[in-house]
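Quick question about two entries, pasted in order.
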Amino acid sequence: MFGPVTWQPTIAEYIEARHSQSGFSREWMGDELVKEFDRELGTLLARQFPNGRCQIDISFTVAWGTPSSPVSS
C-alpha cells in the first residue's frame, strides 16, 4: 500500500481532473452541462476549501502477479 499522500490541487485543477474521467468528459457532457457542472462544483468546493486549494488524501495498492488461469467469458 502506498500513501496516504495529500494532493492539493487548486479548485480549477480539481475540476479539470474530473473532466479527464469518461463520465465527465467535455465531449460527452456538452458545452451547457460543462458550464453548469463547473459553476456548481466550483461553488461547493470554494465553501469546503476557502483557501482555494483542495485537500485530498490518496492511498493505493499495487498487486503484481500473473493470473493463474485465463478469464473465461
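Here is the second entry:
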Amino acid sequence: MSVRPLAELEARVRRNLDLTSHPTLDWMPRTDGPDGAHVHDVAIAGAGQGGVAVAFQLMRERVTNVLLFDKAPRGLEGPWSTYARMPTLRSPKDYTGPDLGLPSLTYRAWHEARFGDADWSRLDLIPAHLWAEYLLWVRDVTGVVAENETELVGIAPAPGDLLALRLRSKQGERTEFARKLVLATGQDGAGRWLVPDCVKALPRERWSATDDAIAFEALAGKDVAVLGAGASAADNASMALEAGARTVNLFVRRTRMQRIQPYRWLTFSGFLRHYADLDDAWRWRFMSHILGLRESIPQPTYDRMRAFANFEIVTDGAWLDAKLEAGRVKLSTPRGVYRADYLISCIGMDVDFAARPELRPFAGAIQTWGDVYTPPKAEANARLARYPYLDANGAYREKAPGTAPFLRHIYDFTFAATMSQGASGCSINAMKIAAPRLAAGLTRALFRADIERHWASLQAFDTTVFEPAPIDRDK
C-alpha cells in the first residue's frame, strides 16, 4: 500500500476534532490579577508528552487560557532526545498516549502516513527519535501552543488566591499569574536523581548521573562502571560499549537480576483508572511492591550490551566506597575491589522537594505519605514515605492546615504522583487515562471556585429560543 501523505492525516485529525468538539460553549470567567495583570486559568510547566496531553485535554474541555512552557529548546522536551539513551521505546507499539482516544491522532496513524502500512506491520518497537517527532506533530496538529526555553524558577502565593510564577527565559525573568499550576516536569520533577555520596565526593569529571549529558566518545579505551539494574543503566552501559570503552561493568545491588516488568502487569483499565480510588493501605501495598521491583531490562536492551565480550554484570555489587587512587577510581563492593576510570550512577529518582528551586521555599509544607500513613512493618519504606500525598484531583496538600493553602493550586504530574495516582505523567501506558483524569481535577476545582459566578450567570441568562406570534406576545 502506498504511503498516505501526512497532510491527508492532518485533515482527518482536524475533522475528528470538529466532530467530537461538543460541548463548545466557553465557560471560564475572566479573572484579573494584581493591577489588572493577565491571569492564566492553568499554567503547565513541561511541554513533553504529559504536559502536551493535559493541555490538549483542557483545550477539548474549553479551557483555553492556558500557558504551557518548557525549559528545553523545541524538539528536546522530555528525555527522548537527551538522556533516554535507547534506540526504541520499551512500551509495546500499540500503546496509545497523547492521542486521548482519537484514532487519527495515534502514533500508528502517524507512522503509517509517514512510512506505510507494511512498515508498521514490520515494526517491533517504536524508535525513540520517531516518538519525539510524533509528539511534536501532536502538539502542532492539535493547536497546542508552547513557549520553549522558558524555565519555572519560583512559585509564590499572590493576592486573589492566585499563584505568582517566576519564569526565566533568554529575555530575562518575568512573573506570570495563574489560578492553577501543573508540574509536568518529568521523572525528577519533585526531586533529584540519586547518586551515592561516595561518588559525589569524587571530582565531578569522574562521574555522571542518569540525566547528565555524557560525552561517551571520551570513554573510548576507558574502564567504565555503571551502577543500576534497570533499563537506563543498561542503556548507558551500551552507549559506553558502543563508544569503544575498554571494559564496562554493570554493578547491580541485588543478588539476582530483576527479570520481571511490573508495568506490563498493571497496564489494564481497572488498575490504571481506579488505583487512585483505593484506600491508603491498598495503594501503599501495591506501589511498595511495584516500585520495589522496579523496571527490568528489556530483552533488546540486554542483548545490546551482552553483544560485547568486554562487558560484565556484577551482582551484589553495591558501591560501598569510591576513592581516587593513582589516577583511577577504586570501588569497594561486597564482591571485592574494582577499578574504573569513569562512573555512571543510574539508581533512580528520590523525592526531595528541596532539591527543586521552584519548590524549595515551601518544601517542608508539602504533605507526604509519611505524614499520613504508617504501613505494616514488613512494608515500611522510607523512600516511598517521601512521596507527596496528593488530593483526589492530583494537587499537593498542606502538611499543617492553614500554613500553605496555596498548595492546593499546584498539581503534580511528575513521577512523584505515582504513589497517590498510580502510573501517570511519565508513563505512556497510562496517559490515555491519566491526562483526562488530571484535566478533570483541574476543571472540577475551577468550576467549584467559580460557582457563585456561574450562579449569577444563570440568573442573568435571558437568551430566548423562539419568537412568539402576535397573539402570544403578552403571555
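Reply: The first strand starts at residue 39 and ends at 45. The chain has a mean pLDDT of 95. Hope that helps.
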